[in-house]
Amino acid sequence: MIDAVVGAVIMVVATTSLLSAVEVIEKAFADAGRQPLSPQEEQLMNRVKRVVYDDGETNIKYQFVFKNQDQRTQFWQNSLKTLPREVISRTSK
User: Please, what's the largest Cα pairwise distance for the chain?
Assistant: First the structure.
């Protein structure tokens, strides 16, 4: 009898722990990227370039992707809008 009660308590604790862990993960996903860029990330964004080919092979030119701080900020804000907000998608069910 005591074994059954102990087993039931263990199942309840395990289930509660699992549900709590899923909620913590979902909160972490929701909060991801909400802080401003770190200095290293800001430096990386400043160095991003794209390759522009003049004649297709021999003349390779590089061009900065973001011309100013406003473009970098707008890119960051737009990227945050498309981040997933849940671990388990409701549309996948």
Answer: 83
